[in-house]
Each structure stands twice: as structure tokens, then as C-alpha cells.
Amino acid sequence: MNSVLTEERVREYWNGNPCDSELSSQDQFSREYFLDIERQRYQLQPHIPEILSKIDWREKRVLEVGAGVGTDARNIISRGSIYTGINVDRGSTEATERALRAFWLVGTALQRDATSLDFPDGTFDIVYSFGVLQHIPEVEKAVAEIHRVLKPGGELLVMVYNRSSINYAVEIMFLRKLGLRLLSLPGTVSLLQWLGFPSQKLERHKALRRQKKQMTDAEWLSRNTNGPDYPYCRVYDAGEAATLFSAFQIKSNEAYFFDHRHWGVLGHLVPKGLRRALGRRWGWHRIVHAKKSPGRRAKEKATIPRLQTN
Length: 310
Known about the structure:
By secondary structure, the chain is an alpha/beta fold. It has helices at 3-16, 31-44, 47-52, 71-78, 90-102, 139-149, 166-182, 188-194, 199-211, 217-223, 238-244, 264-268, 272-282; strands at 61-65, 82-87, 108-111, 124-130, 150-161, 249-256, 285-291. The protein has a 7-stranded mixed beta sheet, with helices on both faces. Helix 6 links the parallel strand 4 and strand 5 (150-161).
């Protein structure tokens, strides 16, 4: 894998599609636009504000790696932090800047590469990153940089995708692979569309299968996270996440979030209580809360178990 080329493709994707930007049809960058995104984000994922409450943000210097359109940034700033957020692309950085201005919030939004940060050692009290590191090909470098810029005793709160989840093991690696084989049958796309699945993505998956009959598990995973043309993603079980963040003292390493939307009409029939229980056992989000040991030096590299391939 050419990590430089892959990173550039990831950057281009987010530049044109900042995270959650598709959720609202309100006037772009208006207060209503950002509030609409916030409402939908936290309604679907109520565990986000819950995990933010794990930390005392007051008067803490915070770095968010991957700020998206600034939804969590506004939440963190409102809790009294001294905030800096970075995005790898210009489009998301502009969205974060506009979000902070729309609500008269004090914070800094920068376009930066997480694998090569230009902050001095020990700059931040807290580093927060929700759903970003799994999209970085050279993730070991990003984690080492996070460790470096975090103060001794500082806290890390991060979400990566969970390998031991219903979403990965059942949906992506079994049901969707089966569905891909069935897409060539007459009427399958129409049936899946009726069940609530987007026809445009289905047609694209169908076209890509005609182009390439075989693909690795890594390629298939990437195509099933942010769309069939998405270039890179990976997943971590509890042990792999512990290895990735082995330079830190891990306080918790837990699963959250059963995404019922992936099951179409059937998913909406699942009671909220059951959704939450499934998420806490086999959720798509693996959330790690960790601490930098006082006086411990960052590891230059973390040994990451390789993603299994076909």
C-alpha cells in the first residue's frame, strides 16, 4: 500500500465531504445548519456527550484530532476548555472555523496532518479524537505524535471502529458480502432499496464488483465505511486497541453504539433499550480513555497487528 497516495485520497474525500455535513439541508454554515447536525448526531449517538462527561474539561488545553464540522468542538468549548482542533483537509477546517464563528466561541481550527504535528512537546492537557485514527494509514506516527504533544499525566479520549462488533463481523464481513453476490440477480437492488438501503451505493457496489471480482478484507472494509469508493479504513478489537495505545495507561477500553440504520426497516423496529444493550456488548465504536504516564517517553512506533486479508 502506498501510504502517501492513500492519505491524499483520504484527504480529498473529507475535503469534499466533511464528517456529518450530509446530515443537514439547512443553509450551509448557518447556525441552523450546525444545530441540525448536532441534533441528529447526538440523537443517533447519545453516548458521545456521555463519554465527554468522563473528563473535566474546565481550563484544560485541548487538542481535537479530526474536528469535522465542529460539533463536538462546540460541546467541548462550552465545558470551559481552551480548544484547538485540527483537520487534515481544508474543507473540514473551514467548516469548524465557521461553526465557532457562528456561535461566537473562542477556539482555534487548523489544517494539520496528525502524523506530523507542529506543537511543542507537552502542549495539551487532553487529546480527543472521535472516529478519525482508523482512517490514517500511518496511524502509529499519529499516536506517537499525540503522545508527544500530551502533557505527562494528560488524558486521551479516542474512538476507533470495533472489530468485535455486529457491524463488522455480521454486517460487513457476512451479510454485505452475501448481498454483493446477490446484486447481479434481477430485482435485488429494488428489494434492498425498499428495505431502506440507498440504491446509489448499491449500484456502485454492483459496478465495482464487475470491475474486480476479488478483493482483500481490508479493501472490502474500506468500501463499507464511508461509501464504496472510500480508500482506507481499519478496525480494532480490544487487544489491538490496547496495543495501539500501549504507550498510555488505559483506564477503559469499551464498546458502544449499535447502528440500527444499517438494518433498514428492520433496524427501526429494534427498541432503544435493546439497541443500547447491543451497543455496549458488540458496538461499532471502541472508545478508549487513557492517560499519559508522568515522565514516560513516547514510543517511536507501536506494533500493530496486521488486518487479516483474504
